[in-house]
Every structure is written in C-alpha cells, then in structure tokens.
Amino acid sequence: MSNITFRQLRVFGEVARRLSFVRAAEALHLTPPAVTTQIKELESGIGLPLFYRRGRVVSLTTAGEYFLVYARRLAATLKDAEDAMARLRKVETGILQVGLVSTAKYFVPRLLARFCEQHPGVEVRLQVTGNRAQLVALLNGGEIDLAAMGRPPRELATRSEVFAAHPLVFVAPPGHALLGREQLGAGDLAETPFIVRELGSGTRKAMEDFFTSHGARPRIVMEMSSNETIKQAVITGLGISFLSLHTLGLELRSGLLKVLDVEGSPVMKTWNIVHLPARVLSPAAEAFRYEVLENAETYLRAHDSDLLGPCAGAAPRRLKPKKTAPSIRKKTR
Fold first, then answer.
1. Which burial class, exposed, middle or buried, applies to 164 when counting CB atoms under 10 A from its CB (0-12, 13-18, 19+)?
2. How far apart are CA 192 and CA 224, in angstroms?
3. Burial class of residue 81, CB neighbours in 10 A (0-12, 13-18, 19+)
C-alpha cells in the first residue's frame, strides 16, 4: 500500500460518495476512463476489490467500506495540513467547503456570492443536504469546514454560534377559511389537513414542539422532503403548512401564499454556524464564519421583515454584538 497516492484517495472518495464513476468524473473534471484507471491502480495496490460493479450499478465491497473510513481520515488530515500552511502564508486563497440544510439554501448562497466578490482567490464548494443527519455526517467526516443549520448536533463535539433568528410560520392558500380569523389557537388548526416536512427535519420538529406545547395534534395528510413541493401543494389547496419564513419570500410577495395569524407564531428558532473545534479553520473558512456572524442577521431581517403580516411585531432584536473581523489578506510592506 506504500504506492497509494492522494489523487487515488480523492478519486476513490468521490466514487464512494456518488456510487457512480461517471458522476465522480464530472465532479473531478476527469474522464470516466481516467477515474476507472485510478481505481484499478488503487485496488491493485491494496490487493482487494473496493467496488462491486454490476452494469451501471456501483456499490462498496466490505473492504471498500473499511477503506473509506481511513481514506476520509487521511483526506481530513491533509486538509488540516493545507489549512495550517495557509495560515502561515496568510494568503487569500484555498478551498472553502460549506454545508447546509435545505432550508438555508434560500439565503446562504447570497452570503457566499458576496464573500466571493470580496475574496476572489477562494474556491467555494457548497453541499446542500436533504436532512440534518446527512449534514452532521459531512461535518463529522471532515468533508465540510462549516455547516449552517438550526439545531446544533448533540451527538458530535462542535462549536456552534448563533448568527440569526429563524422565524417559522403557518401558511395557507389565498381564500382559505382560516385567513379571515385573528389569533387562531393551535386547536383551531387541529382538524385542518397539514402538509409537512419529513421526520428528522428541523422544521418538522419545531412544528411538533409547537403543537405539543399547546396540547394539540395536527392532522397530517402528506409528508414531503422538499420545501418547494410543499409550497406547491399548499398553493393548489391540498392543505396548510408550517415552513421557514426564509423559504416563502416569492410566494408571499406574489400573493400565492398567506401567513396565518396563529397565537404563538412566528415560532422563533435560531440559525447556527457550526464547525469542529478539533480542526483548525482555514483563513478562508474563518473569514466566511465572520461574514456570517457579522452580516447574516442584518440581511435576513431586511429581506424578510415585511413578510410576517399580522405577526410583524414579533421581529426579534439583534441577537449578538459585533465581532472583530479576522484578516486573511496578504500583508503589505
């Protein structure tokens, strides 16, 4: 195994993540034959097959599953070394790996775009996960530097910092019978069909906590893992829902959806920027962390404060004091 290269490990990691030689080749900007060659050389060096191949179906062998654990450790260690060297050079280059839950995709890319304008030498890799568990796995595996999420993981030692308030609201289509009523209680919603996020999502847990605290239970008729699909279902009149205000800007401003005036809403949660304290953040990651902590709340308040309708008075105060910005720019003489 002494002849194994980091390039082979990177190719192996991409194929294992995507379970596709073609998609791995696209992600690595290589040709499929080049990926196949790298995997064959790696398997030859190890002396064991790492993948089962049945036509286009690819899966890890037992040896491949074990080797993936060590490959990820090696990749994380190499990334730590690169970040440490970047800190010593103090240059504004490198790779920034950010992961986020699907609800955060409605605003984090805008923060990243602003960051890239200010730091053009940084290459950004963004991963949007279907649920919280997948994001925690990416963080634990060292595949991302920073995670934007609601509830910080309890199953993992992390440093979590609140960067903005996160309002969640009840929404209905125009003309719904509940829209004409003020200060609805949780009991008033109990017999109305609900279209909700899947179990395990932060939005779903916040909704369940709300109803539990009010001694009521929603009548769930559909579960979906996509905010966009839920919004379309509500628009067509299939039910009402409970969603993050950050996901609703277009529909509320165009009148396709309306916020219900429910007592105790908006339900206020928080957004957190999370990383592993055991890993040293690169200069790029440290700078983006500061960007989020310093500016995300101001952006979200300006973008969403007009959407709350009858709940507008519930907008929260600023959550935190300003922090001192780290510098990743090259020193000038």
1. buried
2. 17
3. exposed
- The domain in which residue 209 lies consists of 165-269
Find where tokens 């300003």 sit.
Answer: 322
pTM for the model? 0.66
Same domain for 44 and 61, yes or no, is: yes
Cα 76 vs. chain centroid, distance in angstroms? 20
* Phi, then psi, of 66 in degrees rounded to 5: -65, -45
Q: Do 175 and 50 lie in a common domain?
A: no
In a 3-state reduction of DSSP, which class is residue 131? coil
pLDDT of residue 182: 80
DSSP secondary structure letters along 220-272:
EEEEES-HHHHHHHHHTTS-BEEEEGGG-HHHHHTTSSEE--BTT-SEEEEEE
Taking the CA atoms of residue 68, residue 201, residue 284 and residue 8 in that order, the dihedral angle to the nearest 10 degrees is: 20
Share of the chain above pLDDT 70, in %: 88
- 168: tokens are 């969640």
Cβ-based neighbour number of residue 263 at 10 Å = 11
Same domain, yes or no: 235 and 199: yes
- Number of folded domains that form the chain: 3
pLDDT value at residue 309: 55
Residue 159, SS3 per DSSP:
strand
